[in-house]
Amino acid sequence: MFAFNPTFEAPAGSPIRELFKYLAQPGMISFAGGYPASDLFDREGLDAAAARASQQPALCLQYGPTDGLAILKEELANLMTRRGTPCTPQDLLVTTGSQQGFDLLLRVMVAPGDVVLVEQPAYPATLQALKLQQADVVTVPVDQHGLDVAALAALLEAGTLRAAPKLLYTVPTFANPTGATLSLERRMALLELAARYRFLIVEDDPYGDLRFGGAALPSLLALSDQVPGSRDWVVHFSSLSKIVAPGLRVGWMVAHAEIVRRCVVAKQTVDLCSSSWTQAIAAEYLASGALERHLPRIVDAYAVKCRTLCDVLEAHLTQHVAFHRPAGGMFVWARLKARQNAADYLRVCIEHNVMFVPGVAFYKDNIDAAALRLSFAAPGVADIETGVLRMKLALERFSGALAG
Q1: Cβ–Cβ contacts within 10 Å for residue 153, how many?
Q2: Please, are residues 121 and 141 in contact by the beta-carbon 8 Å criterion?
């Protein structure tokens, strides 16, 4: 009946959000959504920040500049400096979550048919955005140490791509979904490849502050100063969603001035500006030092939850499930050793009131149907223990049904 844009004639929604209907099932324990723990939100600190912001109604209740409130950009530049990546407010564009920043970048940089490289498995919203942009997506494998940079180098050197790649998307620190962290050696090699082949590295960094083990590594943006010619080829995204509250919808990008300028123009047609109200609250929250005071509580809690999940998996499912312990972030990436289909297994798990995300959601091609993602951030420790026991019972039933 309607003449839709061809890319929206039969659009596929988020495979993760499709699972949310099961959350209403009484007693459901969810390892599915990549949600931060609601009970760890700093309500007191955010309430105080909101009270201070409300004292400036002309600032927080009015339209704001498209690139973001000056007070927030100043605080975000300070935060980036504390993370080891000095930048100025002029280097920053405030976005409505980092996902909007990625969407703006695609509008500015990627035409239909352009080659885009993506680590795989990858964040599903990234694959969805690239599909709608009609990019020619080429996947690069990952392992427990992150993006396989040697495989990427071989791909680029082979000259088999239909065109030079425009950009490469990666979550180098505590990746979603694998929890893997790109090694320092691989980070340096990746920057060298970007400078040599002149493609943008899209560094998505929402989880970097959630480290509870091992030594911190500099971001790709920070390291780019050490690799001649690479700084201009890094676009860095970050967000307050995982470390403060996703309801603020505050993200930002740091990129070359010419990229930022064009993304500002693209953003003008999308939402004019991000919410001045939540920007002002975020600015007050950061300026007060509340993030530095509260973040250790979140990290400590996630450390306990991750350890609990991994310990219980080892105790009850080690013969059936392989996984790697992450040193931070929100996710454990696992695989059914008998190579059963995780999507089929999920259906049995839902009947046992426990859920996860099957790995198929994170692949464009070469799908590992036995893979699955478990998020330990939102459920409590007791629910994590109970949830794994339910997964064990479901797997016994599932395996029995397969054998039968």
Answers
A1: 16
A2: no
Does the domain spanning 56-290 belong to CATH 3.40.640.10?
yes
Q: How far is the CA of 175 from the CAs of 82, 88, 172, 179, 221, in angstroms?
A: 22, 27, 6, 5, 16
- Residue indicated by tokens 């962290």: 181
Looking only at the bridges linking them, the beta strands covering 234-239 and 251-254 are: antiparallel
Q: How many CB atoms lie within 10 A of CB 6?
A: 8
pLDDT at residue 402 in the model: 55
The pTM of this model reads 0.95
Which residue in 355, 331, 333 sits closest to 343, CA to CA?
A: 355
What topology does CATH give the domain 6-42+292-403?
Aspartate Aminotransferase, domain 1 (3.90.1150)
Distance from C-alpha of 393 to C-alpha of 322, rounded to nearest angstrom:
17
Q: What is the CA angle 352-179-374, rounded to 5?
A: 5
Q: Report pLDDT for 7.
A: 83
Q: What tens digit of pLDDT does each residue of 284-321 get?
A: 999 999 999 999 999 999 999 999 999 999 999 999 99
Contact 367, 359 (CB under 8 A): yes
pLDDT in tens, 267-279: 999 999 999 999 9
